[in-house]
Amino acid sequence: MLIDTHCHLDAAEFDADRDAVHARAQAAGVTDIVIPAIERANFGAVSSVCREYTGCHPAYGIHPMFVDRAQEADLDALRQTLATQPAVAVGEIGLDNFVAERDEARQAFYFAEQLKIARDLNLPVLLHVRRAVDGVLAHLRRVRVSGGIAHAFNGSRQQAEEFIKLGFKLGFGGAMTFPRAARIRDLAATLPLESIVLETDAPDIAPVWLDGGRNEPGELPRIAAVLAELRGLPVAEVLAATTQNARAVMPRLAV
Questions:
Q1: pLDDT for res 254
Q2: Contact criterion met (CB below 8 Å) for 135 and 114
Q3: 2-254: which CATH number, 3.20.20.140, 3.50.30.10, 3.30.1480.10, 3.40.50.2300?
Q4: Contact assessment for residue 34 and residue 126, using Cβ atoms and an 8 Å cutoff
């Protein structure tokens, strides 16, 4: 049993063969897939995929790279969607200081408002954090939510420990499979196992063996095997622990 805690199965890259992608994931033992939205415009697509495919669970949010076309009314729509649909988290939300063309104040506004929604509805959050770890942590200290996942974690050990103190799990996926990703691999090997969850971010962040090709949730068992190798543990132990961790941080997965 495996849980892919971050997969954009609704993305256009899967339109031609989504049935087959889902079937491969199920055959590989990936029993649950969390599908985060990126803007109000794809809330419907996320909801539709989760209704159609067994084991898929929605999260709704406005991604920092899409706030330029968001409106404040989208926040009302988000709150309404989360209050009336069986979402497991608020996401994908956060800050992105990597993109050259960005409005940091606008990102911060939408992030803070979505944290308030998560707090009010007692939902965990799925965090997008790119070159913005300290900024995200500052927001989390101001608006306390019921934990969540720092998706595609790529910070320092000290930053990892700060997320853990705030009740967060850290997401590891394809980046961990690259031999040159020394810092990520060291963190995956040495951070407390109870703080780690697995993800693909499919169709993105493909593992090394796909050579830049399209990622998909069926790759998660091989990603889990890399984590097990890095930690010197049996694969079964890693599967059990990461599944338990995902359900602990997103309690609605167990419903």
A1: 83
A2: no
A3: 3.20.20.140
A4: yes
